[in-house]
Write a structure and sequence with these properties.
binds protoporphyrin IX containing FE, 2 domains, 184 residues, globular, H-NOX domain
Length: 184
C-alpha cells in the first residue's frame, strides 16, 4: 500500500504513545525502511508486518490496532491532510458512504498504483443500511470498523456498527449493518 498508509500508522502510534514505541515496532517488524514516502507504493506485507509488530509491542490484539488506526485515519490523516477531498463527497455520512468509490477513484489520479477497496451502501429502511466491503486484501475488517466509527464522529452521526457477514470462499465481501439512531 502507499506510504501514506504506513506513515499514518506511524503517526497513530507516535501520537497515542511515543516515538520510542514506534521505533521498537519498526525494529520488531523486520521492515528495513524507517521513513515512508507517502506517494510511493510499498508491498502490502510492510503494512501487515508493522500492524502485527504493533500488536506485539503494545500487547493488544491486531484487531484493536487496526480499529484504532482506522479511526485515526479518518479523524487525523484524512481530516488534516485531505479535508477538502472529504468535503467534496458528501455532507452527511450516508451520502459519503455511497460516494466512497468515487472518492478513491479521485485519489487514483494522484496515486496511480492505488488498488482501492469498493463499497456498496444500501438503505434497508429509515434507520438501517447495509454496507458491503469488497477488497482484494484479507484481514482488514476491523480497519473498516474503525473507519466507520471515525466517520460517525466526523459527521457527528451516532451509528451502531455490526459485522453481519464476512468474506469466505463462497462470499466475496464483508457486510456491515449500520443502524442510525436518528431517522435519515
Ligand atoms: C480522504 C480520505 C482518504 C484517503 C486519502 C484514502 C486513501 C487510501 C489509500 C492511499 C489507500 C491504500 C491503497 C493502496 O495503496 O493500494 C487506501 C486504502 C483503504 N481505504 Fe481509503 N482513503 C480515504 C478514506 C477512506 C475512508 C473514509 C474509508 C472508509 C471506509 C476508506 C477505506 C479504505 C480501506 C478499507 C482501505 C484498505 C485497502 C483495502 O481494503 O483493500 N478510505 N485508502
Amino acid at each position: 500500500m502507499y506510504g501514506l498508509v504506513n506513515s499514518g500508522l506511524a503517526d497513530y502510534v507516535r501520537r497515542n504513545y511515543d516515538v520510542e514505541t514506534w521505533n521498537r515496532i519498526v525494529a520488531k517488524s523486520g521492515v528495513s525502511t524507517e521513513v515512508f514516502v507517502s506517494m510511493e507504493s510499498y508491498p502490502d506485507e510492510v503494512t501487515y508486518n508493522l500492524v502485527v509488530a504493533a500488536a506485539e509491542v503494545l500487547g493488544q490484539d491486531v484487531a484493536k490496532i487496526l480499529e484504532g488506526f482506522g479511526e485515526h485515519w479518518v479523524l487525523v490523516t484524512a481530516k488534516e491532510g485531505y479535508g477538502s477531498l472529504l468535503g467534496m463527497f458528501g455532507d452527511n455520512m450516508k451520502d459519503f458512504l455511497k460516494n466512497l468509490d468515487s472518492m478513491h477513484a479521485r485519489m487514483g489520479t494522484t496515486f496511480p498504483k492505488l488498488r482501492p477497496p469498493s463499497f456498496v451502501c444500501r438503505d434497508i429502511d429509515a434507520t438501517t443500511s447495509e454496507l458491503e466491503y469488497h477488497s482484494e486484501r484479507a484481514g482488514l475488517t476491523p480497519f473498516v470498523v474503525g473507519l466507520l466509527k471515525g466517520l460517525g464522529k466526523y459527521f457527528e452521526t451516532p451509528v451502531d456498527i455490526k459485522v453481519i457477514g464476512t468474506k469466505s470462499e463462497s462470499v466475496s465481501h464483508d457486510t456491515f449493518l449500520l443502524t442510525w439512531s436518528v431517522k435519515g
